[in-house]
Design brief:
Blueprint: H1 10-13, E1 15-21, E2 27-33, H2 44-60, E3 68-74, E4 77-82, E5 85-91, E6 98-105, E7 108-115
């Protein structure tokens, strides 16, 4: 992982980065956002880097094997970050987790995250 500047220090950014693993060997980066600063992850100084990580994660995801991903967690609400859009997965209850389906459409890998309740998110939203 690259070195981050001092603006990423949690006391300044109000963000905490954490490596996460899901069932199936999927690996991700969670950006935990201070609930008193819910829009900080979308500030240009941070958002550009978060989108870069999302692009790298998708580029490393192959047709089979682990899925790599980035998620922003704002209190109990989770956003699945893709290079071209952010998917609001809603408010998670205790014990709920993200599941991810992978499809290949027109030679491109598409990721479709959903909650463990089986409620699939519309990837075109």
């Amino acid at each position: 992982m690259e070195t981050l500047g001092p603006e990423w220090q949690p006391e300044r950014s109000k963000l905490v980065l954490q490596s996460v693993a899901l069932k199936g060997g999927h690996q991700g980066l969670a950006v935990h956002v201070d609930p008193d600063f819910i829009d900080n992850w979308r500030l240009p100084i941070f958002y550009g880097q978060i989108k870069t990580w999302a692009a790298k994660a998708l580029a490393h995801t192959q047709a089979s094997g682990p899925i790599y991903f980035v998620v922003a967690e704002v209190d109990l609400r989770k956003y699945f970050i893709l290079p071209d859009r952010d998917l609001d997965l809603g408010i998670f209850k205790h014990g709920e987790t993200i599941n991810i389906d992978r499809t290949i459409e027109n030679g491109r890998i598409e990721l479709r995250p959903w909650r463990d309740q089986g409620k699939q998110v519309n990837p075109l939203a």
